[in-house]
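Title: Prediction job returns without error message
Component: structure pipeline
Severity: low
Priority: P3
Assignee: unassigned

Description:
Job completed but the reporter wants confirmation the result is attached to the right record. Sequence as submitted:
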Amino acid sequence: MMLDRNLKVLLAGAEVVPFAKTGGLADVMGSLPKALTAMGNDARIVLPRYQGIDDVKTVTDFPVRIGGRTETCIVRQSHIEAKLPEGGTKQVPVYFIDNYHYYDREGIYCHFDDAERFAFFDLAVLEMLKQIEFQPDVIHCNDWQSGLIPFLLKEKYSRHDPFYSRTATVFTVHNLLYQGNYSPDFMKIIGIGSEYFNPNSLEFYGQVSFMKAGLVYGDVINTVSKRYAQEIQTPEFGLGFEGLLRKRSQDLHGIVNGINYHEFNPETDPRIFRAYNSRSVQDKYENKFSLQKEMDLPVRDVPVIGLVSRLVDQKGLDLIPEIVDEMLKEDIQFIVLGEGDRYYEEMFAGIRDRYPQKMGLYIGYNGILAQRIYAGSDMFLMPSKFEPCGLGQLISLRYGTVPIVRATGGLADTIVDYDMDTNSGNGFSFEVYDSAMLLETVKRALRLYRDYPDRWRSLIVSGMENDFSWNRSAAEYLELYDLAINKHTRSYRIA
């Protein structure tokens, strides 16, 4: 359903491609506003200005009270380009909240004063709106770093200034694992009264929680897949918030992220060895052979399984040691790119040392090599313990690389397990978190690859023709914004 009006939307978060990135949040923040703009909406972005973000112009500055003192916020501006359906481009404004005390340092997260840094960001975002004379219909807050915005808007700004009274909020949980929980002393830093330190407001097991602020005060809340929205209402995935999320289940929605089909396009991607599309999938072989050569593996036509991931426990990597010897008995090659926990980095290095003719390994981040793995692999492995959405399986589908996933979160929403009887599905999946189930699923994929080449090709083509573009996701977000506006309007009239 398309809305009968265009909206003014401000997307607030800690990361935005191409300015700052550690994970999928940055991709969402960099892609969704482009799709909204292409649909005719006035979408804008705001994030902190970290060290190394240059080529920005100064817009304004103003004081912000925090920690019993006055800090100066400098608003700077740049833009990203949205491609319009009728041709040409339009600039999407990107605002940066700058303060030398908080942001002129290396790294985005894991600083001793992150609570204060992101509280300053949330306060400054709301103060900025009047300074730039932008009155959004919706502020779309992303993850805990912007979680105080819905609280501050409702309890401070809307009550005292009509400028803010018509603005609704949407709060998106990209990963419930990261919550932004801090000491109760933090209340004093941002001048919040003790009356808000209670289980119905900001208190979370004796701490103040940015995440809880967003979950309690957002007009509408969502997460990045329908399955994950259901999962986080259970003790296994809710991480202490399951009761609150069940209470707000009517306001809790799931929207699967999209991917940028201009950036992730095997027909035009300059990073891969040979361009191809769903009508020329035979050209994937050139990408495979070139990838094998780059990774110092024998160049031969065997199934290549790729894995591009943060090397952390969430990604299900603990299932691999138990089955890797059995898996590599097969006539296959295994290519891994990632960085993270030293345990997993050393684990994969040990496997590579034992199987130098069968495994390629790159520890670190390499965007060009990542795309070559997506294009050159036959299968893509994602055995995650939990996965709010996941982008790897969507990129691999786009490049004709068949996903092998555990059916959790967004992986369950996007990958349909292949059925031999009906010749349907777009990948291979397993439900139970178990290494034997992972091995059996890998072997099912290998059997189809070897014994049924026509069906394998059909599986590749159907995956490439799936639509997981941001256009689809953006249309769902517009409906969500409309829900938030209607709910906010009703509650404002009652108040």
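Comment from assignee: result matches the submitted record. DSSP finds 18 helices and 18 strands in the chain.
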